[in-house]
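Internal ticket #5521
Category: modeling
Description: The requester needs a full-assembly model to guide mutagenesis choices. All entity lines are attached below as received. Residue total reported by intake: 672.
Assigned to: D.W.
Attached entities:
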Amino acid sequence: MKKLLNAPSDVVTDSLRGLAAAHPELRVDLTHRIVYRADAPVPGKVGLVSGGGSGHEPLHGGFVGPGMLDAAIAGEVFTSPVPDQIVEATRAVDSGAGVVHIVKNYTGDVMNFEMAAEIAAADTGTEVVAVVLDDDVAVQDSLYTAGRRGVGVTVLAEKLAGAAAEAGRDLNGVADIVRRVNENGRSMGMALTSCTVPAAGRPTFDLPENEMEIGIGIHGEPGRRRVPVAPAKEIAEMLLEPILADLDFTGGDGSTGVIAFVNGMGATPLLELYLMYGEVAAALQKAGVNVVRSLVGPYVTSLDMAGCSVTLLKVDDELTGLWDAPVRTPGLRWGV
Amino acid sequence: MKKLLNAPSDVVTDSLRGLAAAHPELRVDLTHRIVYRADAPVPGKVGLVSGGGSGHEPLHGGFVGPGMLDAAIAGEVFTSPVPDQIVEATRAVDSGAGVVHIVKNYTGDVMNFEMAAEIAAADTGTEVVAVVLDDDVAVQDSLYTAGRRGVGVTVLAEKLAGAAAEAGRDLNGVADIVRRVNENGRSMGMALTSCTVPAAGRPTFDLPENEMEIGIGIHGEPGRRRVPVAPAKEIAEMLLEPILADLDFTGGDGSTGVIAFVNGMGATPLLELYLMYGEVAAALQKAGVNVVRSLVGPYVTSLDMAGCSVTLLKVDDELTGLWDAPVRTPGLRWGV
């Protein structure tokens, strides 16, 4: 295993220490492994909290700041944070307006966020609404999931709900945005190589030199099938086909088009991600799907896995406006 | 070789096509492989042009836009663009105020930019001032270079000179900023793995499973030495030692501190880059170096190489102000 780290057991805390050093505008609680925007709780604003296993950076800690999350909770690599951490973050960002939990659909996360919401409600009367994301069309049930997995749409949900909270919407209004994003967004990923979990020290799975895995999860969970490595144009079609089959993205239901998101899995350089985006954009044009906004880069990674995923989110003018609203986080920033 | 591409010979054009699709606010000339900000030439503004071999994305095409470059010219992977391309870009962005060329110190780039400047001056009277960057302290001469190589400081020079041009400085004023950045900036890189050039189809060099290369170039050129893989803390010290020995970054000469930049080589995930930044920040504090701004991420990559580099740039209030000025490019964006 070749990685830039000290002891594998310290990788999460050491990385959070670096995030804190690079971003003095954030407040990082190294004991509880929580990243806060420095001015949380923001008076009158709904708190927005997410989190999950580490290894997906910039998700979630890199998406904390004005216009996005109030707090992000880091678990061990590929392991849910524990309820105590989630309770701590939830209480800390509650201004009295309540807190929305954005939870990716993995058994551990769902259980621990649920337990934390109950504890926060019982102990301090914090009102929590949780929304579970399950946008991955690759598989129904999988290694860590009952139902679909939560993947790429999480970034879009955190951005759009963050803008809604910043704009002063109430608890249910912010939660509704997350729900709409989940209902209208779908993702599909692929891998050229495995990732290597630091504590394991060896690749999670073996993938022969001439094969790729279609429908991979963000923890190296098996996908739909292994096939020979294909040209980028064919990979784009393989990823889009099940997404386009699952929802109608061609408009006519009040949507004006899609946000098209090509995500890097961690070890795939931008040269290749932009190349993939070109193929995705061409395929969408052919399919009659109108792209109103795009995002290209490594935003929901899987440690050092090489590969990518595609996410499409149907939007209307309201969601597009929330997308364009100012955001200031380490991972996404514009307008400020 | 496992990469997201179609034919290896089309990788640069295909990737530029994707950049164009994702960023309609840019104008991409696929024939000449030039990325322009859409409103170039900007009346009265000095034009800022850079470019070089592809494979370092987002450098340079991802740094085109208001507050940074007016045009970026893409060569083949790890190969200088030809003079004709550079002439084309130079003329196109000249509003009459002249054009600054930012050139990384590689033999091919230096020669071709020089020839292009002469042609542009002779044919259309375009006044060009070129500044060559050579911030890499690792080696004196190397595979593609007489003298030091130009690496990480390029991003900082493009940002700071871009802000100066946007603020209305004249040709020599903008070129002076690039010169100051080069004089006050130093870099050092390392690799855990080789990169693979698409046309070659196999790794540029072999690096045993337990070794890393200290002082690596951004094309896989040999560095100073191969040593056993070490903890991140020690790697940070190995990279900082020759930088701190080469220039005094502790202030007292009018500088208020440094911009500290930890760069990813392409296949190193953010989890590890932030961890490295934490070690760099701690080592700088110990060395009495004041960090006023930071940048962490893959900005000058070397295809799919795993590794990182550290750049320190001495700044005063003027340079810090230029750093903070609004910028809107695919790779760096804030304030707009």
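Resolution: model delivered.
Comment from assignee: Chain A touches chain B through 62 residues (CB under 8 Å).
Ticket closed.
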